[in-house]
Amino acid sequence: MNFEFLGDNFMSLTVTGLTQGAIYALVALGYTLVYGVLRLINFAHSEVFMIGTFVTTIVWAGLGFGVGASAPGTFGVLGLIALAIVAAGAASGGTALIVERVAYRPLRKRNAPSLIFLISAIGASVALFELVGAITDRQPRGMPSLVQPKVQFTIFGADITNLQIGIILSALAMLAGLDIFINRTRLGRGVRAVAQNPDVAALMGVNKDRVIMLIFVLGGMMAGAASVLYDIKVGLTTYSVGFLIGIKAFTAAVLGGIGNLRGALLGGLLLGVVENYGAGVFGNEWMDVVAFVMLVVVLLFRPTGLLGESLGRARA
Amino acid sequence: MMAVIDSARKADESRVRAVTGLRDRWANLPYGWRISVLFAFVIFLYALPGLEIPLIKTPDTDFTSVLFLCAVYVLVAVGLNVVIGLAGLLDLGYIGFYAVGAYTVAILGSPNSPVVIQYPWVVCVPIAIAVTMVSGVILGWPTLRLRGDYLAIVTLGFGEIIRVFALNSDITNGNRGITGVPVPSEGTWPEWMDWFPGITAGRPIFSVSNVIGFYWLALTLVFICMLGVRRLERSRVGRSWLAIREDEDAAEVMGVPTFKYKLWAFAIGAALGGLSGALFFSKQTFINAQGFDLFTSILWVAAVVIGGAGNQLGVALGAILLAYLPERFREFADYRLLIFGVALIVMTIFRPQGLLPSRRRKVELEDRAKEGAVGE
Amino acid sequence: MRQSLARAIGGVAMVGLLVGAAACASDDEGGSGSTDAAACGSKIAFFGALTGGNAQLGINIRDGAKLAVDQYNKANADCKVELVEKDSAGDPAQASGLATSIVQDAKVLGVVGPAFSGESKVANPILSKEGVVIITPSATNPALAAQGDKTFHRALGNDASQGPGLALYMKDVMKVQKAFVVDDASEYGKGLADQVKQTLGSVVTSSAVVKEQQTDFGALVTQINSSGADSIFWGGYYREAAPFLKQYRDAGGKAKFVAGDGVKDQAFVDGAGAANAEGAILTCPCVPPEKAGGTFAADYKAATGREAGTYSAEAFDAANILLQGIKAGNSTREKLETFVDGYTGQGVTTSFKFQENGEIDPSAVAIWAYKVQGGKIVADQEAPKS
Fold first, then answer.
1. Which of C250, C266, C270, C376 best tests the A interface by mutation, with the highest count of A CBs <10 A?
2. Taken in order B19, B23, B29, B35, is the CA torsion positive or negative?
3. Who has the most CB within 10 Å: A79, A308, B79, C376?
4. Considering the entire predicted model, what is its pTM?
5. DSSP assignment, residue C360?
6. Which run of H or of E encompasses C345?
7. What residues make up the domain containing A150?
8. Within this chain, do residues C171 and C93 fall inside the same structural domain, yes or no?
9. Chain A residue closest to C212 (CA)?
10. Within 13 Å, how many C-alpha atoms sit on residue A207's CB side?
11. Do C18 and B29 touch (CB under 8 A)?
12. Residue A313: inside a domain, yes or no?
């Protein structure tokens, strides 16, 4: 157990953790939205994320930026990123919508118990996972290094690069946008109403089905944005990246308070940071365990999460 | 689109009626007849490795190995059924118990393990079962108070924790694994077994190249365990599980110690999982952390639910399909999981009670569907 | 009454079916090593990763073996040998099932492979117990020769030479001051990393372990940056090394990158990016294909359309040894084993004479260092001998 290492590198591990955590937070939004409204763990969300990562590489490769290509100037890079976010957001949102239509809606009509929903979610996740695996021949797909990290400034001995700042700021911006949408717009009010009590909301004139479609699409779009950030950061994607990120994002959602958007942000950032500290103290190979142990501990001692649940009903 | 779905459902319903008719007629058969048919079926199962049934033979892999895999998976399904089907607890990390049982046998029994004790298999296995039961209790104690969905995720987390532990710790030799997992016995086939096709007297009973011995051992254990669980189901414990599954609060009010029985379900499920792990890996002779991915755990849950949670024959069928189909249709090897995933979605929409449902479950789901229709 | 009759007939029919099926049952093809295969129709097997993240390494070996088999079959059209391909995806967990299927096919006399050390550890005992001859063209872990597998042979040097050779290259030629050692916990990776650590001694500042299939190396990059190491040794395969190096260079890491034969493939350069991989040093107990004897490099290119890869030449030699044995009439596993044990001859890579434990003569072993230059892997020099 290497506490010295933690002490010496506290700041850099924190920054690395926040960057990682920002990505978790965006993906966690999808889980938290769906669970808050439907009480369903959307297993397929991890594959929605994964599809976003692939769409990004396809878009970039299509524009001539395959593996090993050199990056265009700053505006070119920003343009590529923006384009990728739109494309991945659309693809991920679209996938989420399809999953809802094909797998979940028929079950809702039958008032199926949650175990069956979970099984269907697993089936959707496996199907998407394998489909992409078969299409890509299970080979990883690289992409060009678009952002050349340059150290912007140094705090307490930690170099902070433009890449890290970019990721954290983008995630915060998107979260702020979503927050405003949910809390200040009419559609957002519909979402909150359905989360509180679907039948009464329907009585009050909210189109339940449309609201549900909306939350799936929103969650998917957030995952799409996260996938672009992930691609820039890691530079590689393969058909199996979704699984681990998905589980950690779900952990983050629970950690912050399921159904609570700001909780997803807090949970994601916290998880990223604690994970990296754990990697520093125990060694890289134990990093994933840290996430799971955190999950178990949180569920045992504070099942409603750190910020409590806000979107949905109170826990039964 | 809805019309197609409806007509498909009607076709399926007529099949269900036929099957239910069969089931009722079976129940009405005199006792003696039922016993003889069952006996004949059991003999048939034991004789399978020697029979050459053309349609069901697997092309690329040794048929007996596939039979053995089916038997092990059925054992897993029986154990998982206790947790999910009987007690109603969703466990997504069942592979953790499988791993604990297997590793205990490997560590205590193999000459290559970091702990050089080398107990024989028959000593290792009861220890493995005990260790797995204890781990089941340790897992269950803090987590069984959680809600269904959260319980699922926590068990998932535990399964992963066990896998990462196996991957990184020294006692399990990490990713390099432990070779030389002990076999049940070093004996050889006696002369009087020579008539069975595939058995040559004098060759070892439990070897990697000839799996008949392993298969028979697994089959025997499956029967013993299935009978045991059936007895449990019909006892006070089983009735308590039923009460907990249907409405936990009501059960608690009626004086059923729900926590204790849930813990029992976990422990028994864990024990069966550990036993299957020990059995499987003594055939493999090698164990490493890669054999315990979460995916398999999830597939097992799916097999149990598709087969019919709560019904032992149903979950056995689910397990056999899971083990057998990918081996039989190897041409689609790359797509088998894809097909499985799609099948899951389809099954949950059209037949959520499973292929061979337990009657209670079927009624419960029908009631819910009616409720749903009212709310629309 | 009629119902009982119907049931009685049904029961008799069922029993009759069982008896009939049992009577018609043919003999099981249970594994045994001593069946005499027909003089022709023998098979040799390739065992290694043809799919999965490290597939390229297996494909190179398969193609080398295939070239040998195809050339043999052309010259001996009346008595061909079949190459059976067993894809393990480099996964030791799959190895035992595949090894079992090999031993159960009585016509398979020998195996070119298993390609990786992890799967060898599992498969070799199974193969050897049933007498299948093993010649691995690439598995380098030294412990494999000490497992007591009688039919094991290795067609190249092992990590007990590669490790120290690599470390000495780092110390004497590259003159590194502080090395950071990473391994992937695999049989091969950890074994090689341990050898390197042993020889480098105090030059090693710290070490870390990565997971297989890991794609996100953020924490590791931070760790290396803060350790101030001027070189990184990677004990593992290219599947993880490529994304790691890319992320490391992207984060501004400047340390030199050194790795062993598991990383030596063009896929590594492509995955990491040519600019990032520039200057990386990769060692291998294999000769550069262009230095291999005869027309091997040209033949390989003509047959597959690609340049020969890592261990293609060694696989070619391994397959040829087996084929020569079959040609000389050794059509059972025991006879082939005796032949290979006593074999001496010159292959395209080196001269072969197997010792008691299956290793080749140490003087015939050469460790080469390769450099990544201009997006390609080129031979640099032979590594210093310890």
1. C250
2. positive
3. B79
4. 0.81
5. B
6. strand C344-346
7. 3-301
8. no
9. A285
10. 8
11. no
12. no
